[in-house]
Amino acid sequence: MDREDLSRNKETVLIDLTKDDEEDDEEEEEDDEEDDEEVEKEEDDEEEEEEEEEDSLEEMIRDMTCVICSKIYRNATGITVCQHKFCWDCIYGKIAEHDWTCCPVCYAKFGNSEPLRNLRFDPVYNSLARYVLFKVKENAEKEPKRAKTSQASSSSSSRRKM
């Protein structure tokens, strides 16, 4: 186009430029919305992973809890007759001091005159119990940090809405 065409079409050109600006604004808004959606999706994914990890940890805690003291195993010990696990101090105390002759969970009889011979230290369960205890402590340390982070993010998101 030459100058005469431009001068005749000045209004059209301005309208076209305005349309381009509006389209750019719309594109920017769409990009911002997409970015916000991506951030929210990432946050949701992280929260889901944390929830799954917490569910898994809760399940492990249930599996690694002594039914006598209701704590995570310390020196995990199994009964050879039925394979139920307990803390060494808990099961030893019940058998030695209280003359128990059966498993406190399933009541399987020990079957011999020396019930303590039915106890076996379980290194695998002991390692798992130590791992669970470590994770519980780690989560307890993370919890105050998460609370501060969630408060900060909720206050910043409320500022954005205003």
Automatic annotation (TrEMBL):
Keyword Metal-binding: yes
InterPro entries in alphabetical order: DRIP1-like, Znf_C3HC4_RING-type, Znf_RING, Znf_RING/FYVE/PHD, Znf_RING_CS
Database matches in SMART domains: RING (SM00184)
Extent of Basic and acidic residues compositional bias: 1-13
UniProt-listed Gene3D superfamilies: Zinc/RING finger domain, C3HC4 (zinc finger) (3.30.40.10)
Region (Disordered) location: 1-58, 140-162
Pfam families associated with the record: zf-C3HC4
One GO molecular-function entry: ubiquitin-protein transferase activity
Residue ranges of domain RING-type in the record: 66-106
Keywords for the protein's UniProt record, in alphabetical order: Metal-binding, Zinc, Zinc-finger
Biased composition (Low complexity): 153-162
Biased composition (Acidic residues): 19-58
Record's protein name: RING-type domain-containing protein
Lineage: Eukaryota, Viridiplantae, Streptophyta, Embryophyta, Tracheophyta
